[in-house]
Amino acid sequence: MRYLTAGETHGPQLTAIIEGFPSNVNLNFEDLNHQLHRRQKGYGRGRRMQIEKDTATIAGGVRHGKTTGAPIALVVVNNDWKHWTSVMGIEPVEEDNEGKRRVNRPRPGHADLNGGLKYNQKDLRNILERSSARETTMRVATGAVARQLLAEFGIKVAGQVIRIGDVEVERQELPVDELIRITEESPVRVVDKEAEAKMIAAIDAAKEDGDTLGGIVEVIIEGVPVGLGSHVQWDRKLDGKIAQAVLSIQAFKGVEFGIGFEAAERRGSNVHDEILYTQETGFRRRTNRAGGFEGGMTTGEQIIVRGVMKPISTLYKPLQSVDIDTKEVFTAQVERSDTCAVPAAGVIMENVIAWEVANAFLDKFGGDSIEEIRTNLANFLKQVENY
Ligand SMILES: Cc1cc2nc3c(=O)[nH]c(=O)nc-3n(C[C@H](O)[C@H](O)[C@H](O)COP(=O)(O)O)c2cc1C
Ligand SMILES: C=C(O[C@@H]1CC(C(=O)O)=C[C@@H](OP(=O)(O)O)[C@H]1O)C(=O)O
């Protein structure tokens, strides 16, 4: 299974095509749009999220609510486009396009300067329009489709914010459904109300100062069978693929599984997960410090992944930059911006990980229809039971 996305943040629409999705999967449009809606929420976002009401239109691959096996085409229209038609027009322009919200003072931390140099663009808008995290709308849409496939097999995805700036919250080991329910109601997606209030205050204070905040998000996948991914080749290791997916989210700079970086400080006896067996449960682990992976393969325990998001790079009190025309020192350009997008980014992280897990699931149990996949999974589970 694969997908591609296209579209600019202030262009007419965003588009995604999913190829290789099996047939006969019921696609619940409400659930799909619910994921898009979740991505738009979260305390600390800028005005753009009030303009957009992200809703996916399905333009291929689905008939009467079920997938047909054909490529699934998804479209999300940008409401903001109507304010940008002259700036973002596709037709050639007669007059000099300068002054049409041209960006010439690159923002430290954004893609502006590297992209301008690489693509030889003197209007850095040609870079920021595509580097913008607006593109993650389509990655949530594709992840939301994958998530529905996972749900058919009882695999659930949840997430919680662990840190915003210097406010850290104790990670909660709640049943996944409860974690989903509680975090859904929190503007910063945490369970702890005291931490929630502190995080909101920290975001307000950063905004007041013209500054921004990053943080840490955790994602949990429950109900995954043993043996997704493989140890035999570097590019088949599922933890590696998930790490790449997380780091591909705009502004994500680190990823860890289970106890993660803490493993460096501990002795092996306090890191590895002891193996247990009973007839009823099969092979299980006493602990899950590995976060669900050994040898690039799932252990059957929860997948636990954390991602680190740096603070947003556009500052209302901008850092020093250089004008790309004159090479003179200037402050960086200010584009309308979020103060903190960690809660929203957590939703993106859930969905890009769901995509990777669904893809590995299809690699292992793949078939062209959901019925074929069910048979393959049942056969494998029988094999594991009789092992
Ligand atoms: C949900 C989300 C919202 C974001 N909003 C902004 C924003 O409003 N302003 C900004 O400068 N960067 C924002 N970013 C981060 C930039 O898109 C990102 O820093 C930029 O594309 C450069 O990529 P890099 O940070 O991964 O190197 C956001 C990221 C995410 C995930
Ligand atoms: C549009 C989204 O996020 C945008 C991501 C973003 C960036 O630089 O990454 C910059 C801002 O864009 P704008 O200037 O249009 O407000 C955010 O709003 C979105 O998440 O849908």
Per-chain topology:
Layout: E1 2-6, E2 13-19, H1 29-40, H2 48-51, E3 56-60, E4 62-63, E5 66-67, E6 72-77, H3 112-119, H4 125-131, H5 136-152, E7 156-164, E8 167-168, H6 176-185, H7 193-208, E9 215-222, H8 238-247, E10 252-257, E11 275-278, E12 282-285, E13 293-294, E14 297-298, E15 303-309, E16 320-322, E17 329-331, H9 342-365, H10 370-385
Antiparallel strand pairs: 1-2, 2-6, 3-6, 4-5, 7-8, 7-9, 9-15, 10-15, 11-12, 13-14, 16-17
Helix pairs in contact: 1-5, 1-9, 3-4, 5-9, 8-9
Bound molecules: flavin mononucleotide and the ligand C=C(O[C@@H]1CC(C(=O)O)=C[C@@H](OP(=O)(O)O)[C@H]1O)C(=O)O.
Please summarize the sheet with the most strands. Answer: 5 strands, antiparallel
Could you say which overall geometry the principal axes of the C-alpha atoms support?
Answer: globular
Pick out the low-confidence regions: none
Radius of gyration: 22 Å
Question: In DSSP terms, counting alpha (H) and pi (I) runs of 4 or more, how many helices?
Answer: 10
What fold name goes in the CATH topology slot? Chorismate synthase, AroC fold
Hetero groups: flavin mononucleotide, ligand EPS
- The end-to-end distance, rounded to whole angstroms, is 30 Å
CATH class: Alpha Beta
Give, in order, the helices and strands: EEHHEEEEHHHEEHHEHEEEEEEEEHH
β-sheet strand percentage? 15-25%
CATH superfamily heading = Chorismate synthase AroC
Mean pLDDT: 96
Helix content: 25-40%
CATH architecture identity = 4-Layer Sandwich
Q: What's the β-strand tally?
A: 17
Strand order of the largest sheet: 8-7-9-15-10
Number of domains: 1
